[in-house]
Amino acid sequence: MKVSVVGCGYVGLVTGMGFVRLGYDVVFVDIDDKKIEMINDARAPIYESGLEELMREFRGKYYATSDYFEAISNSEVTFICVGTPSKKDGSIDLQYVESAARAIGRALKEKDSYHVVVVKSTVLPGTTENTVKPLIEKYSGKKAFEDFGLAMNPEFLREGVALRDFLNPDRIVLGVRDDRTRQILERLYKPIKAPKLFVDIKTAEMIKYASNAFLATKISFANEIGNICKKLGIDSWEVFKGVGLDHRISPHFFRTGIGWGGSCFPKDVKALIRKAEELGEEPLILKAVVEVNEKQPLKLIELLKKHVPKLNGKTVGVLGLAFKPNTDDVRETRAYPIIKKLLEENAKVIAYDPKAMENFRRFYPDVGGKISYATSPGEVLNASDVILIVTEWEEFEGLDYSGKIVIDGRRIRSAEKTAKVYEGVCW
Ligand code: NAD
């Protein structure tokens, strides 16, 4: 079976290369010529562990183009993996999904054989059937579930371990309406041994939002308890180890720190809040989950000020800019509000991240352009006596923090052992 993937970001590239790994031929489509060129050169436009190696190993089994006609005519199934960012008011911005749907429609018009379109982007319940379907139908002149197949298949991969997650998922959720589409997707995903849950299309869309909202809630809940623990002199990591041993709760994704960021939780929780309000429901828990998360990174500054009351003119070292380790993704990273606050207090900031410095500078020109960047974590330690740990990159474990004041948002054990003054945000 041949597959095409529209949108070559974190999800699209990993999905496409995952299918290549399973033995399929893949055509990637993007509107960004630089990405197309890099993919055709077997170079990954994003950093994701193992991705570029896979691209080099399977060169010839995939290629990238900006031509939808070519991609659709050379494949039987197309996955839509374009971004669904937030608008200013928190609601979902569907412009990329809509333009992909229009272009797929135009290409389908020229194709005689049956083709399945699968929405993998995270979209609110109803989007596939009420937005994507009418656009494809309008531009192709064909009817969904008769002339072409349509499905929704949310993605649950985690950046940093994305390929592993794609190939070994906890479950595959498939929102379908017609048997023909269901059979094609069953065949496509046959090599992956995981429970496959077939549901209707809007249920599949909701499963993704409910999953992300729950995970975000789990972390904000842990942080709220963690903040109480901190005041009581209790190590919240021990608390959640104990709590997580209850099999109804599970220990996974249950750590305290400076909160969640990234390209998914913030925008998805906000989009769900807006949708609930639009429906006349007040999402009390979800709003509190966001509020806790917005306050949490600033706890690091509060703790810092206990030891360094005046930040004016002081050089502060920041270790980590990515929203989590093993990725270069800085979207909604907790580093941003922290560095913004430091600059507001007239501190000088020197930062280091193994993969995300370039992205940070580009994404956040208001603060990213005002700080200095080190070429190694050692350079940060040399430049400053005051260190904030923002991302738990493994290499930060290998450092000697002797003589330093360290305020840790992620729990780096070597800092805890060697720093002159050490404060954990919730421990
Ligand atoms: P991304 O921003 O990294 O990539 C999107 C890509 O789509 C870009 O390369 C962009 O150039 C391309 N694009 C935009 N419009 C296009 C068009 N009309 N035609 C072709 N290409 C187009 O996004 P991402 O992080 O990969 O996320 C994609 C979707 O998957 C989102 O809905 C997101 O919520 C969801 N998701 C993301 C993750 C994650 O960890 N990143 C996990 C699960 C689900």
Structure characterization notes:
It contains 18 helices and 14 strands. With 427 residues, the chain is an alpha/beta fold. The chain folds into 2 domains: 2-199, Rossmann fold (3-Layer(aba) Sandwich); 234-427, 3-Layer(aba) Sandwich (Rossmann fold), CATH 3.40.50. It has a 6-stranded parallel β-sheet with strand order 3-2-1-4-5-6, sandwiched between helices. Strands 11-10-9-12-13-14 form a 6-stranded parallel β-sheet, with helices on both faces. A two-stranded parallel sheet has the order 7-8. Strand 4 (77-80), helix 5 (95-109) and strand 5 form a beta-alpha-beta unit. The N and C termini lie far apart (52 Å). Nicotinamide-adenine-dinucleotide (NAD) binds next to helix 1 and helix 5.
Summary tags:
2 domains; alpha/beta; Rossmann fold; 6-stranded parallel beta sheet; binds nicotinamide-adenine-dinucleotide; 18 helices; 427 residues; 44% helix
Layout of SSEs?
Elements: E1 2-6, H1 10-21, E2 25-29, H2 33-40, H3 51-57, E3 62-65, H4 68-73, E4 77-80, H5 95-109, E5 116-119, H6 127-140, E6 149-152, H7 162-167, E7 172-175, H8 179-188, E8 196-199, H9 201-232, H10 236-244, H11 265-278, H12 284-295, H13 298-307, E9 315-319, H14 335-344, E10 348-352, H15 357-363, H16 365-368, E11 372-373, H17 377-383, E12 386-389, E13 405-408, H18 413-418, E14 421-424
Parallel strand pairs: 1-2, 1-4, 2-3, 4-5, 5-6, 7-8, 9-10, 9-12, 10-11, 12-13, 13-14
Helix pairs in contact: 5-6, 9-11, 9-12
The structure holds nicotinamide-adenine-dinucleotide (NAD).
